[in-house]
Design brief:
Number of strands: 19
CATH superfamily of the largest domain: CofE-like
Oligomer: single chain
Mean pLDDT: 81
Shape: flat
Helix content: 25-40%
Distance between the termini: 61 Å
């Protein structure tokens, strides 16, 4: 009988790690003292703390001089101001503070408590910072182990993170090398033949969490585990691709990434959009006067978002997207944008969550010419997005006309794609879904199966769409399995001639 079996082996006998230690060599030696040998295909899960120690990332708290902001945060969180200063220096931004917790976006992009800056197992009066580049650390350790032991293993660097809306912490992957951290099973069939549409598995996190069962969190003294027998897909995609980005903020009860003063920062960004609607340069004093905020804080925001120079098309879209993340009303922000910037904002939002985007597609079918403002494609769903840069909601008759136009585009695009790709080798099913993107808050989110989305709530709407698309107006078409959006679009463009 072919039994599927996975072993998790804790590596004991690794000494207290000091700066400059050859961690890979210490692991190989400890494994050999246990009477074992590393094998090709093994997965090494290594606790972040020993990597940080070997890389000199453990610091004395006395090295940190708290800023006034750190002291204020320390009062609110009940933490040592020096610890808070270390957290701030290791953060891109503060997401939220509550009940002594400081949730940050760490430099590597992970959303976690204290930006991964930890006091436990660092020593009295010391603080452990996460590795500067955990993916690079994983690659270096993997390469060194191959030199020493002659085997090709995968390496995961793990750290303890909390989970939104669930009690208890688990280990997750913050760095990896030698395996693909994400297993995408979309397009496969389940036991009943149904096509999987949203099945994406983070195997790197699953492996890190499994290894924690032998690594532990307290005084176990087991900083490394071997996972043996799991058949993984090899690759060099970094763990930095795992975080979902800004959509995580919805689980935290906020509309976007924030500083503790997110309202102030959002107001500054909104003012920048307002002032640069007619000119391309910003002045911190002028912004401060409009916002009634200190010029020093305005200068800090300008530096953070690299807005010291001329503010062009791409920078304005960046500012608008960041302002919406910070909780500024999307309808108000969009009023400072022209129609091109509005479509650019939508494209940026789609791309940020993994969609390919093609703008201003024009094609002809059945004697009718069509223009689609945006096509957004994730390999399973293709959204036909009609961007309405209108200042107020349409009348019921206008809404009806919009739906009729979208229906024609949907049917003609379906037929055009079927004609193009029928009999073209290995095909897969994708679902075409029409959507209407607006500045204003629509009266109804769903009308005759057509989805109306406010730009300020775009990311939340997309998550709903990906899970509940079967409730929406849609059409299924077969296209070549390995083609991206741009390759699908090229022949569509020829239909316009």
């Amino acid at each position: 009988m072919d039994l599927q079996k996975v072993e998790i082996i804790g590596v004991k006998g690794i000494p207290i790690i000091e700066e400059g230690d050859d961690l890979a060599s210490l692991i190989v030696e400890a494994v050999e003292r246990m009477g074992l040998n590393l094998r090709d295909g093994d997965i090494l899960v290594i606790s972040q703390i020993v990597v940080s120690k070997s890389e000199g990332r453990v610091k004395e708290l006395e090295e940190y001089k708290p800023s006034r902001f750190a002291e204020e945060v320390a009062k609110r969180s009940g933490k040592d101001p020096r610890h808070v200063e270390a957290i701030l220096q290791s953060s891109k931004r503060i997401v939220r503070m509550r009940n002594g917790l400081i949730i940050c976006e760490a430099v590597g992009g992970h959303i976690c408590a204290n930006a991964g800056v930890d006091l436990s197992n660092a020593g009295i009066g010391r603080v452990a910072l996460p590795p500067e580049d955990p993916d690079f650390s994983a690659r270096r350790i993997r390469k060194r182990i191959k030199e020493l032991a002659g085997v090709d293993v995968a390496v995961i660097i793990s750290d303890t993170h909390g989970r939104p809306l669930r009690r208890g912490s688990i280990n997750v992957a913050i760095g990896c090398s030698g395996l693909k951290p994400i297993l995408d099973r979309r397009g496969e069939r389940d036991l009943y033949g149904r096509t999987l549409r949203s099945k994406i598995i983070c195997v790197a996190d699953e492996l890190a969490s499994a290894a924690e069962l032998v690594i532990g969190q307290a005084d176990e003294g087991v900083p490394v585990a071997i996972i043996r027998g799991y058949k993984f897909e090899r690759g060099e995609e970094p763990a930095s691709t795992i975080p979902r980005g800004e959509r995580v903020a919805r689980f935290l009860g906020v509309r976007g990434m924030t500083y503790s003063s997110r309202i102030i920062v959002g107001k500054i960004l909104e003012t920048i959009l307002k002032l640069t609607a007619e000119k391309v340069e910003v002045d911190s004093r002028e912004i401060a006067e409009h916002c009634l905020i200190s010029e020093s804080m305005v200068s800090e925001v300008l530096d953070k978002f690299n807005l010291r120079n001329r503010i062009g098309f791409e920078q304005r879209i960046k500012v608008a997207l960041e302002a919406i993340r910070l909780g500024v009303d999307g309808e108000r922000i969009s009023r400072y944008l022209d129609w091109r910037e509005f479509e650019g904002l939508a494209a940026e939002a789609f791309e940020e969550i993994g969609y390919e985007v093609y703008g201003d597609l024009r094609f002809k079918h059945g004697g009718r010419r069509h223009q689609i403002d945006l096509l957004a494609y994730n390999g399973i769903l293709m959204l036909l997005v009609d961007c309405k840069h209108w200042r107020k909601p349409p009348s019921p008759s206008e809404e009806k006309r919009m739906i009729v136009e979208q229906e024609r585009r949907l049917i003609d695009l379906r037929d055009a794609l079927r004609n193009l790709w029928r009999g073209s080798g290995e095909l897969k099913e994708i679902t075409l879904i029409p959507a209407i993107l607006t500045i204003y808050e629509p009266r109804k989110k769903l009308l005759r199966g057509h989805m109306f989305i406010s730009v300020g709530k775009l990311m939340g709407a997309l998550e709903y769409l990906e899970k509940s698309y079967y409730e929406l107006r849609s059409e299924v078409v077969e296209v070549p399995r390995d083609l991206g959006l741009s390759e699908l679009v090229k022949p569509l463009k020829r239909l316009n001639r």
